[in-house]
Amino acid sequence: xxxxxxxxxxxxxxxxxxxxxxxxxxxxxxxxxxxxxxxxxxxxxxxxxxxxxxxxxxxxxxxxxxxxxxxxxxxxxxxxxxxxxxxxxxxxxxxxxxxxxxxxxxxx
Amino acid sequence: xxxxxxxxxxxxxxxxxxxxxxxxxxxxxxxxxxxxxxxxxxxxxxxxxxxxxxxxxxxxxxxxxxxxxxxxxxxxxxxxxxxxxxxxxxxxxxxxxxxxxxxxxxxxxxxxxx
Lengths: 108, 114
Fold this sequence. Notes:
heterodimer; A: 6-stranded mixed β-sheet; B: 7-stranded mixed β-sheet; globular
């Protein structure tokens, strides 16, 4: 079974700061997902990537397949970015294995 | 599109009662997933369907849990009999095609078993 580890577990930042959340996994994968869980509990898929880098607005996700590592970056952070960010990996088929999540709090 | 629809949003029941959670996937999606989220274990896949057929149910905790997908637009997750340790948020998600596509999550059902 793939072991998915995220760091940090908790992160507090000031508005405007650049934020990085890391995800490492132990076994080769076919794709990696970054999810955002809002304080109200809803889950939104942010990115799905299998190589390189993707950008959407202030969010950037990168993956290094050789190093089994991915990062999620948030530029110019805002209090509305406060949420739990979850990394999930897919080894094959559709089964996802989830990390424990990173609780991000952005203070005004 | 309304997105993935789950009902009920909240369910409080007593131990031993039967609980049925419902999910309507996004129209056109042919894969459906049931997840459970707890503080202790985080998000876990319970079962997923492709074209209404269960593909992997290895995450279903025990025989008290069962899931069905009678057609492409409806799925149920049933717990009978329910126990306090089943208290969790249950998410349904759907995607198009079997793999390599993002999953769209429903709002979840918060289940409390007293």
